[in-house]
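Form 7-S
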Amino acid sequence: MTLRLSTVILPVDRWHEGGRAAWQRAEELGFHTGYTYDHLTWRSFRDRTWFGALPTLTAAATATERLRLGTLVTSPNFRHPVTLAKELMSLDDISGGRVTLGIGAGGNGFDATALGQEAWTPKERADRFGEFVPLLDRLLTEESVTQQGTFYSADGSRNIPGCVQRPRLPFAVAATGPRGLRLAARHGQAWVTTGDPKLYEEGTPEQSLAAIRGQVEKLGKACADIGRDVAELDKILLTGFTPEQNTVLRSLDAFVDFAGRHRELGFTEIVVHWPIPDSDFAADPAVFEKIATETLSQLG
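Output:
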């Protein structure tokens, strides 16, 4: 099974003081996709520099030629399908059709209350996600959309000329629960997981593999229920949130072993965090670049 290696570059550097250079270096190293988080701020970076995802990706589109670009992930927490669709269509045009939308239901982080609202319950997040994704799908594939929803509506919303990628740019749907997996099966071109969060701090790698295997099986059932072949979906693992945390970037051998075990579960893409000093994503740049350039040949 062919495996791709991608990276997620957090928007923590000023564009002219390291930001542009990171995206260009990611392309030089041969990464398949450069993603960024679509948050207003995030965890330990709340009091540090943090820029917006879509402007960053737009700048990256003009600074690169081959690297695919994407969010990992966008959520309804502070987005609306109508405005998001317009921005995504524009980004797809500027990049020449190199955009993937990673999208998830969101959580209880800073984004959840930044607009002054109460944090949504898990059920409400799922309800909103269930409306958000199908409407966004329509907005990116149809020239004019009118739809009245419980949470999200569109009134004669136009997206002309549409995406460069047809029928629209691909969705990579992050999900582990049954409702999210059904959305991935119906609307996704890819599925995203970070593993089982309950195992992050105290679980073992073996327990994590078993949990992720179970997620893959549930995705397969969700696809089978609608008559879709699960093999049609790419399967993306965002690293750093399994029990191994960031230790897999300590050596090429450690990462090759990790990547090989997850490739056996059916993953087609593994995403590593671009090194950030003095953070959970700190890594030796030389080892990181060796991983980027040698992993796939090591795996054969």
